[in-house]
């Protein structure tokens, strides 16, 4: 007998839509999943231009403009999705380098989303910041 597929968890479904849009380069779909007052944070030292806290949709658009100019992603993989009461945790692996900087980074990250009524209200990434800074300085 075939077991029925478990029902999709709502917060993981929102997270999956975000990463599908990211992998497709579909910024408009990403923006459509975000609350207008979103807090988007890449935890790490300000030396790397896209690290820091971006508040509101216009600031998130600025974040994507920055990474579009400097990041050269060679591979990006979602390793797991975990449903939480407040949102979702997503573990990812990313490999790439910064434009004009020869040293590569290859790391895992934990990406945490708070989701309310199907909209992402807070997004935080924790990653190997030492590796990112080292690649930025190279």
Classify the oligomer. single chain
Strand content: 35-45%
Order of strands across the biggest sheet? 2-1-6-5-4-3
The number of helices is 4
Text of the CATH class? Alpha Beta
Q: Which shape, going by the Cα principal axes?
A: globular
Distance between the termini: 56 Å
- Percent helix: 25-40%
Rounded radius of gyration (Å): 16 Å
Characteristics of this structure?
disordered N terminus, six-stranded mixed β-sheet, Ketosteroid isomerase-related protein, Nuclear Transport Factor 2, Chain: A, 138 residues
What does this molecule look like?
This protein has 138 residues and is of the alpha+beta class. It has one domain (10-137): Nuclear Transport Factor 2, Chain: A. Helix content is 32%, strand content 43%. It contains four helices and six strands, in the order ααββαββββα. It has a six-stranded mixed beta sheet with strand order 2-1-6-5-4-3. A hairpin with a 5-residue loop joins strand 4 (87-98) and strand 5 (104-116). The longest helix is centred in the N-terminal third of the chain and has 15 residues, at 10-24. Residues 1-5 have low confidence and may be disordered.
Helices and strands in order:
Blueprint: H1 10-24, H2 27-32, E1 34-42, E2 52-55, H3 57-70, E3 71-83, E4 87-98, E5 104-116, E6 119-127, H4 129-137
Parallel strand pairs: 1-6
Antiparallel strand pairs: 1-2, 3-4, 4-5, 5-6
Can I get a quick summary?
The chain contains four helices and six strands. By secondary structure, it is α+β, with helices and mostly antiparallel strands. The protein is globular, with a radius of gyration of 16 Å.
